[in-house]
Design goal:
Elements: H1 2-11, H2 17-30, H3 34-40, E1 43-44, H4 53-72, E2 76-79, E3 89-92, E4 99-104, E5 107-108, H5 116-119, H6 121-127, E6 133-138, H7 149-157, E7 159-163, H8 164-172, H9 184-187, H10 189-196, H11 207-218, H12 222-255, H13 259-269, H14 272-287
Helix pairs in contact: 2-4, 3-8, 7-10
Length: about 290
């Protein structure tokens, strides 16, 4: 199902962006094997060019997937149309009188080391405005494993560090918010940790503690969550083979280039012509 979604992202890239987004949102909302999409949406395919229309559509799709995930978990949710200085998704509890904003994250498997700016924890807190909670959903294995400023920021600003894998775990255990199940115990984890830990170690990862909170909510065992992560790793290894095959094909293609083709491709990749045009436009504008 995920591969079908990627194909549609590429097919719709030439459409009007809002039209393409609506089509993709509709596909995500009605997809049968939704869990396969949740499992893989955190990894941007290498075949999707950086800073391309396809990449922007993929980002929009990740918003739609997160919004549907909240609906599957029993919340009302929709993707926000605002893009600048705003969260991607908003959700509301139908049983426990709270609202949240959320930001969906996806990274390439080839992405180099990430820092706190990639996660925008503080920005997400600011985007919360009058809503109760702020939730960041990122690939589980892309969170820093030991230390990062995002952990201190999460506690200081009460931003929940959620993941696609946590969603998958809750979906597989049929968790749905109702009068008895209140998911805010997850969204409010940062404040809970701040109140229950007199002196918490800033910047130190507490992902394992959050895992335990998810496991408890699901009425499962830690080994259940471990098995899910193991299955995810198997899938990611398959994805890694696919993504490396794409780059191997690209490498072989480049090796066939003539000198002129290689130079033209380098000029194109550096966007030299576009940058020169932008400089001309700037000078033209200030010269009026």
């Amino acid at each position: 199902m995920f591969q079908k979604l990627v194909s549609l992202v590429i097919d719709y890239a030439n459409d009007d962006f809002s039209v393409a987004s609506e089509k993709l949102d509709n596909f995500v909302s009605n997809a049968d094997d939704f869990e396969d999409i949740v499992l893989q949406i955190g990894a941007i395919p290498e075949s999707i060019a950086h800073d391309s229309t396809e990449e922007k559509l993929f980002s929009k799709v990740s918003d739609a997937v997160l919004s549907r995930a909240f609906r599957e978990l029993g919340l009302k949710s929709k993707v926000l149309t605002e893009r600048a200085n705003s969260a991607d998704v908003i959700a509301k509890s139908m049983f426990h009188n709270y609202t949240l904003v959320a930001d969906a994250k996806a990274f390439r498997l080839s992405r180099t080391a990430k820092n706190q700016k990639d996660f925008k924890v503080k920005s997400l807190s600011d985007w919360r405005k009058d809503e109760n909670y702020a939730v960041l959903c990122s690939p589980y294995f892309q969170y820093p494993q030991r230390q990062s400023q995002i952990y201190a920021q999460s506690v200081d600003n009460n931003v929940c560090l959620f993941s696609w894998e946590h969603i998958l775990f809750l979906l597989k255990h049929k968790i749905k918010e109702n009068e008895c199940i209140d998911l805010s115990v997850l969204w409010n984890f940062g404040e809970f940790k701040a109140k229950t830990t007199l002196v918490y170690k800033k910047n130190v990862s507490f992902i394992r503690e959050f895992d335990a909170a998810c496991v408890l909510l699901a009425g499962a065992s830690q080994s259940d969550f471990g098995k899910l992560l193991d299955n995810c790793i198997v899938k990611f290894k398959d994805r890694a083979t696919t993504e490396k095959a794409y780059w191997e094909t690209e490498r072989k293609t480049i090796e066939t280039y003539s000198r002129k083709q290689a130079i033209d491709e380098l000029i194109k990749n550096k966007k030299i012509v576009e940058k020169m045009q932008q400089i001309d436009l700037y000078i033209k504008r200030i010269s009026r």
